[in-house]
Amino acid sequence: MTIFIKMRDGVRTFISNNDIVVSRIFKGVMAYLCLLIINTNFGYSNVLSNGWISLVVAFLCAFVPGSAFSLVMLIYLFIQLASLSADVAFMAIALYAITYILCGIYHGQFYYNVIGIPVCYQMHIPFVMPLQSALFGGASEVTTVLCGSVTAYYLKSVKEHASQLMDAQENVSVSDLLMSGMLSNTMFYVFLTAMVVMFLVVYLIRCADIAHAWTIAIFAGILVEFGILLAGYLLLNRSSQIPWLIVGNMIALVLGLASNYLLFDLDYSRSEKVQFEDDEYYYYVTAVPKIRIEQEAKEIKKITEGSTTSRYSKVDFSEDDESDEKGSDKG
User: Fold this and answer.
1) Can you give the pTM of this predicted structure?
2) pLDDT at residue 170, rounded to an integer
């Protein structure tokens, strides 16, 4: 167990010491992956689908603030959809505008869910986004999860009917697309229910006053979401999607446990009940210490050599960086 704690502390130290570089590399890589997925599934513009364009945009995204990252991805997606149909792109913009208004009303801050959930949906792992949002965000993020899930299903319908939209003889409108692919599709409501319920379960358990709350929340949220979607697939005769459901949930579980391992390090075996008071209140607090590995004492020998003499001194550095020089011998 100690070796895993040391590895985690080493990762944390490396990231904190190279925060700017790591952040830019991470954003650049994530931007390129998002663009690659968008081009693969919605590459209707020959210009934007060029690999060099994606590299340039990803490089620029590495230097933009986090709030602008999602906006760049959305603009890129809107242009791709406009190359397919102006009405399709307009509807996508309308969905984003509704999302922005709702997030402003309910104070949702994780706008990246609006692009993150659709992108992850194309990889069959949309469950990662509500899981991470519930672990690191507040209850208001249910708005971004819901809006991102609606956008994901809309883009799924666009992808499935792209050939009909490009064929002028088919005469398929966006309203027909919304009705057949979403509003009259029972699986659409099952998917929304699974995503929202997963977020709520993870968030409520994560905030509960219980030991190992994060770990329990991750397993409970994934089990609930898996059960809802599995029931939907079986009842609606979509058993072919069950293997992807299993794989996607396994990936979500691994990423959730990795987040718990890297960011949440409480030692519940040494928790204590603390009570104190001020002029107006009594306070009852549960204090749970963080897991820490004491730094090993470092022993350094200094050796100096002269023409006729040599000296050495041994310095012992303790945790508070105090040092004592010990002895000297003549050679």
Assistant:
1) 0.79
2) 64
